[in-house]
Design brief:
Layout lengths: L3 H14 L3 E6 L6 H9 L13 H5 L1 H4 L5 E8 L12 E4 L8 H20 L5 E4 L7 H7 L4 E2 L5 E2 L7 E8 L18 H5 L5 E3 L2 E2 L5 H7 L6 H4 L5 E3 L3 H5 L18 H4 L1 E2 H6 L2 H8 L9 H15 L1
Amino acid sequence: MMSNSLKVQIKEISKNVGFDLVGVASAGVVETGDCLRDYLEKGFHGEMGYLGREVEKRVDVKQLVAGARSVICVGLNYFAAAPEKPDRGCGLVARYARGRDYHNVVKQRLHILADRIKAAAAGPVLTRCFVDTAPLLEKACAARAGLGWIGKNGLLLNERFGSWLVLGEIVTDLELEADEPCDDGCGDCRECVEACPTGALVEPHILEARRCISYLTIASRQDLPKELGVKLGNRIFGCDACQEACPYNQDGVETTTEEFKPRVEWTHLRLDEIMATDQAGKDKRFRGSCMERVKLEHLQHVAGWCRDNIG
């Protein structure tokens, strides 16, 4: 086991790099592996076929990265007060997508952190950085590392930051002492489950993606089912309904990450402008945003539903 002083240094470096939370989990099999397999068997992942690939790597970090001993988990708060309420002709964007693409922001900081860890270790160190797109169960790892617990909406919850967090990981061959997991703080609360507009939270901790507004407006490539489309309201990209209902999210801590501050061109999306734009216009407007990843045709399809629903 590495000296605990190195772990203390890593945590201090992480804070200096700008992460709000940091913890260490041991590499190995995560306890949620059977839940993932059951989820996939029921087809709740919808069109997200990638979730069914490399399952063994997802549930065992040592199979993802040969020689892995520890996972350094970080969290970055993205909460920002809601901008001035848009008028009825505008679409609503989930909070995480109102600033710059978190994948790029977190990955850049992770690489800085990894370089500084190598310098602190004063020897050859294996580090692999991940943000959301690798076959790694990041919320399960973050919970094991003590960053929070998995809420009933399936998101990581932290007492201070609620669920307004994006996550990242450094898998390393350093053998660091693991942090203690947090206690589950949800108790009997079902606010998130009951707040879901489409009933996608079929039971606590089980999200049927095919009914989730975030999935329907971002990940799906199919036309919106009529019975679910009418539940969109003016949500054009993602949904925060379950998060906004959570008691831990009622007094959000304002983010200190400048890149996550809302940008007006990504928060006030006039539906008529979206419907009239072409590919070049879409690329120019959303460059650097999470919304850059969604197909123009699907964005316009969703915008049409919102327009027809809210008038």
